[in-house]
Task: inverse folding
């Protein structure tokens, strides 16, 4: 049996949980900092991307189905911003001027000494992300190239704040199947 070309409720984004390192992700040409971390979240060990100091990273995917009444796209992810300034996630479509801009506002500052002591003692950090869910309302046509990019603000000297992001999923949600009777 063949796998269908379009998989509903399956992420279009690959490796959004960073379980395969940076596979499928492309760091942009800048001086920012990238790293991978792991922590506990809701009783489960998760991996996340730690990105800071003006860094940006992106992934380009092909849209499998045209956006319309029978198909919509919803972006889900977890993000904790410890920087004083917000990070930004931008979804854009190649050759089209529209984009979906999602601000990643700071919601707490971390204490570097406390984090270091916590890790040295073998305790996990306290990952407290905001849960995001955003419908993507862009002019998407099947086979368009969609680009998802994460941007971080510049850090002051000695500042280690960052954006911690994971579980990035872009789900294609299809309308329920309607069966017709044969006559």
Result:
């Amino acid at each position: 049996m063949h796998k269908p070309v379009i998989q509903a409720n399956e992420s279009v984004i690959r490796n959004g949980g960073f379980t395969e390192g940076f596979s499928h992700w492309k760091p942009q040409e800048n001086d920012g900092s990238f790293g991978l971390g792991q922590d506990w979240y809701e009783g489960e060990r998760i991996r996340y991307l730690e990105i800071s100091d003006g860094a940006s990273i992106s992934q380009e995917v092909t849209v499998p189905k045209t956006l319309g009444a029978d198909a919509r796209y919803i972006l889900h992810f977890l993000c904790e911003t410890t920087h004083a300034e917000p990070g930004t996630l931008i979804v854009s479509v190649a050759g089209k001027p529209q984009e979906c801009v999602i601000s990643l506002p700071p919601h707490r500052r971390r204490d570097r000494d406390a984090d270091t002591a916590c890790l040295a003692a073998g305790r996990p950090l306290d990952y407290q992300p905001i849960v995001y869910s955003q419908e993507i309302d862009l002019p998407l046509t099947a086979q368009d190239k969609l680009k998802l990019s994460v941007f971080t603000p510049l850090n002051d000297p000695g500042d280690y704040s960052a954006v911690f992001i994971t579980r990035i999923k872009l789900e294609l949600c299809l309308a329920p199947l309607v069966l017709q009777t044969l006559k």
User: Anything to note?
Assistant: DSSP finds one helix and ten strands in the chain. Strands lie at 26-27, 33-41, 44-52, 56-62, 71-81, 87-93, 99-104, 130-136, 145-151, 163-174.
